[in-house]
Design goal:
With 369 residues, the protein is α+β, with helices and mostly antiparallel strands. It has 14 helices and 10 strands.
Length: 369
């Protein structure tokens, strides 16, 4: 019996190894192409409709639309031998200024659904409220009915303007030494960062709170700070709100790259009676960190997690292509990107504290039941 089990186990291990090898070789056959444009002066509903319209019209690859502060676009995936055909099709579609009404109708429907999806994710919903407020965008708040009011004339005028400014296009082939890309840097936003705003979430019994800011300093320090605050259950923000005396079910900290800086978010979902306490704890935490009250163990752990997150992103071709494109739109170079792991490794606590002290005024976005 033992011999039979050992034999079966060896066969299973070999089969799993062969499957993993096969999947790996299949993944290497695919290439990603990301097209991105700066979003200054374009309302978010209009951005949503345009990205979904591009996804619909480009049929040569699987398209994944995305949006962030400062730019938006679509990441496509195709087979290596079809990438030139995909590039030509993407450029043709993006330069097209007169849309078929049926395409516009389909894109409006998908845009409305995307807003509903954000409404079901409180952290993402509050983050978009902060982005809209900070950029003085129209409309002042999101509504799923807004994409339906995007007219063909509005689309045509915006698409003409985007065509004149040019596109950032990045082709990422895992087997190539360097990605192929063209760049159209984003126009800097004038962000309003110190504000408070209240909104509502449907069918919620908790108070949702987001502390939000955009830092223009060292992106490496921002990455490490994100892991120090929210990298797993041992991180500061998680322990503060979900430790021995938990006051929040969700306690999340994130840092995201955008063309206008590193976007830092502290999110908490508490009972209304604990809302004030959560806010006080956040102020206390950031004050302690800005005074350098970080143990060497915490700091090294955060750097290690930042390295691991970067390595994980390198293995996700869609996320990697999108993030590198945002990096290029921000005006940075790909040789800086390649140096990020070593920059994380050699970051000092003094540099992190300097970054913390440089953070601009925060914005507080709340949604009460």
């Amino acid at each position: 019996m033992k011999g039979q089990w050992a034999e079966r186990k060896a066969i299973i291990v070999f089969a799993v190894f062969f499957l993993a090898l096969s999947l790996s070789s299949q993944t290497d056959q695919f290439v990603t192409l990301t097209v991105a444009v700066p979003s200054a002066g374009i309302s978010l509903p209009l951005q949503l409709v345009i990205a979904f319209g591009w996804q619909i019209e480009v049929k040569e690859g699987f398209g994944y639309p995305w949006w962030t502060l400062g730019c938006f676009g679509v990441t496509f995936v195709t087979e290596r031998e079809k990438v030139e055909e995909l590039r030509d099709r993407v450029l043709k579609v993006c330069r097209q200024t007169d849309w078929n009404p049926l395409t516009a109708r389909h894109a409006r429907s998908l845009a409305s659904q995307q807003i509903r999806n954000w409404m079901r994710e409180p952290m993402e919903w509050l983050r978009w409220q902060a982005r809209i407020t900070a950029t003085d965008s129209y409309p002042a708040s999101l509504d799923p009915d807004q994409p339906a009011r995007v007219r063909l004339d509005d689309l045509s005028a915006t698409l003409k303007m985007l065509g004149q400014k040019g596109f950032t296009l990045l082709i990422y082939d895992p087997e190539a030494n360097l990605p192929s890309f063209t760049v159209s840097p984003a126009k800097p936003y004038r962000l309003r960062l110190g504000f408070q705003r209240a909104t509502k979430l449907p069918s919620s019994q908790r108070a949702h709170w987001l502390w939000w800011t955009v830092a223009h300093g060292d992106p490496v320090a921002a990455m490490v700070l994100g892991e120090l605050l929210g990298g797993g259950t041992g991180a500061r923000w998680f322990q503060l709100l979900r430790g021995d005396k938990p006051i929040a079910y969700h306690a999340i900290a994130q840092v995201q790259w955008t063309p206008v800086g590193s976007e830092l978010s502290l999110y908490a979902a508490t009972m209304p009676s604990d809302f004030t306490v959560a806010r006080q704890k956040a102020q206390q935490l950031l004050s302690e960190l800005s005074r350098g009250r970080v143990s060497s163990g915490e700091f090294e752990r955060a750097k290690r997690l930042a390295e691991l997150k970067f390595a994980q992103m390198q293995s996700d071709s869609i996320l990697l292509s999108r993030t590198m494109t945002i990096w290029l739109v921000s005006g940075r170079q790909l040789d800086e990107w390649a140096k990020l792991p070593s920059s994380i490794r050699y970051l000092t606590l003094k540099e992190l504290v300097t970054f913390l002290r440089s953070l601009p005024l925060k914005a507080e976005i709340t949604a009460l039941p």
